[in-house]
Amino acid sequence: MNTTLPEATELVERLLAGDRRALARAITRVENGGPVGEAILAQLYPRTGHAHIVGITGPPGAGKSTLVNALTKVFRERDKRVAIVAIDPTSPFSGGALLGDRIRMRDHTGDAGVFIRSMATRGSLGGLARATGDVVSVLDAAGFDLIFIETVGAGQVEVDIAREAHTTIVIEVPGLGDDVQSIKAGLLEIADIFVVNKADHPDATRVIRTLRMMLDLGHPRSAWNIPILPTVATRGEGVPEVADAIEAHRRYLEESGEWQTRVRLRAENEFERILRRELVARLRRRLPPGEYERTLDEITRRGIDPYTAAHRLLEG
Amino acid sequence: MSDNSLNNIRILIAKPGLDGHDRGAKVVARALRDAGFEVIYTGLRQTPEMIVESAIQEDVDAIGLSLLSGAHMTIFPRVRKLMDENGLEDVILFGGGIISESDAKILKEQYGVAGVFGPGTLMSTIIDFLKDELRKRGKLPPEETPAPENNDQAQEA
User: Fold this and answer.
1) Distance in Å, alpha carbon of B142 to nearest chain A alpha carbon
2) Complex ipTM, two decimals?
3) Residue A249 and residue A255: Cα distance in Å, rounded?
4) Where along chain B do its domains lie?
5) Are A52 and A250 in contact (CB under 8 A)?
6) Which residue of A149, B30, B118, B132 sits 20 to 30 Å from the alpha carbon of A221, by its own alpha carbon?
7) Which residues lie across from B115 on neighbouring strands?
8) A228 three-state secondary structure
9) Is the per-residue pLDDT at B126 higher than 80?
10) Residue B35: its chain A contacts at CB < 8 A?
11) CATH H-level, domain A48-256: superfamily
12) Residue of A nearest to B27 (CA)
């Protein structure tokens, strides 16, 4: 790969000097993939690894954007530079997307210490976009102290965020289903911090009690005591306490050595994903023209099963 | 109906001014999504500063403003000035709402507003306009793609 593509070098120099347009364009290049995006990442990678990456997930309408907006205010008061990656779904039918998270993130105009970017999932499942990790790397290199990743409104299996973030916040709200919903595998297992938003709702104490019980029932994954924090994010109530918990979790990760474990896991994840994509691309280039499509036709006709076909392509 | 080549094209739709009539903006945002664009919708009561800052951060290819308050002769020139100051010359600026023909002419000629669309405009007209402008800027390949069959009316566009 040619790492001296002039556009990449120019964008990198400008974004490191604090040019927000260059930062935005670099994110576009990385998000769309291709040689310029790869060259940008290659040049920025040595500068990454400083930001605290915080994932925020929970059901649609729970208040994820509102909480991120309120947390950003608190961290700005604490002199942290904050970037936000807000992810909304791509329509599986048109490939288009309507990204509306900025509606609730409007308090930071004119603040050079805040950068907000909306991303569409572009076909990937799991609550994140394919290039989320790469975009986070660009923001990390640009010097943001905290990077919030707000996932697609998630249900029970959208747990990719836990592999991408150092700290995962799961938002629950009163009024969604019975106790068993939260025992099921999924969001319960990925939370480092629980936030019960809309805590002015009469049912909120019951949700907090249920969550506490569920957590006490399970085996603790680590020495970290998972806090359950009530908030009314629209009014900022309880938000400083969430910010404190985020900072406490970072200290815990660093002191326990888990920071390194998570960073390595994240690296492995990313490395494997890239390898897989690259291997498939190389294999397809090596095959005789039309071979891939012919095999796919055969599988579709039930003439061969996909496992045997995969072995045949790889060994043939 | 949708067009895959549009999937990486990003458009900001904003509703400046103090009135709360955002139905037109939402109809357009939705129709552009259905055509295959990535639409960043920023909601009501956006100042020109907020709009241009969002456009920078989101690295959009076009900015669409919905204006029903009568403030278009203030808002468009202000947005254009901020775009020029921030080097967004390549971004398409367009809009819709209750805008007289004489005002639309001034906006187009003096403030580089590429398109002005009134009530009753077909969505396909706006989509074709955007494709044309994107082709002029080399952001879409020049060959003609079949026009989407979308006859939704843009009420209060």
Assistant:
1) 20
2) 0.83
3) 10
4) 4-154
5) yes
6) A149
7) B94
8) strand
9) yes
10) 94, 96
11) P-loop containing nucleotide triphosphate hydrolases (3.40.50.300)
12) A98
B112: exposed, middle or buried (Cβ count in 10 Å: 0-12, 13-18, 19+): middle
The predicted-structure confidence for B133-146, as pLDDT tens digits, reads as follows 999 998 888 765 55
All residues at 6 or more sequence positions from A218 whose CB lies less than 8 Å from its CB, including other chains: A188
Q: Say how far apart CA A8 and CA A106 lie, in whole Å.
A: 31
Which of the listed CATH numbers 1.10.10.10, 3.40.50.280, 3.40.50.1370, 3.40.50.150 matches domain B4-154?
3.40.50.280
Say which amino acid occupies B71: A
Residue A177 has a pLDDT of: 63
- Domain boundaries along the sequence of chain A: 1-47, 48-256, 268-315
Tokens representing B70 are 């009568």
Q: Which pLDDT tens digit goes with each residue over B8-24?
A: 999 999 999 777 778 88
Contacts of B50 in chain A (CB under 8 A): 106, 109
Residues of chain A with pLDDT under 70: 1-4, 126, 154-159, 177-186, 316
Contacts of B47 in chain A (CB under 8 A): 109
State the Cα–Cα distance between residues A141 and A122, nearest whole angstrom. Answer: 24
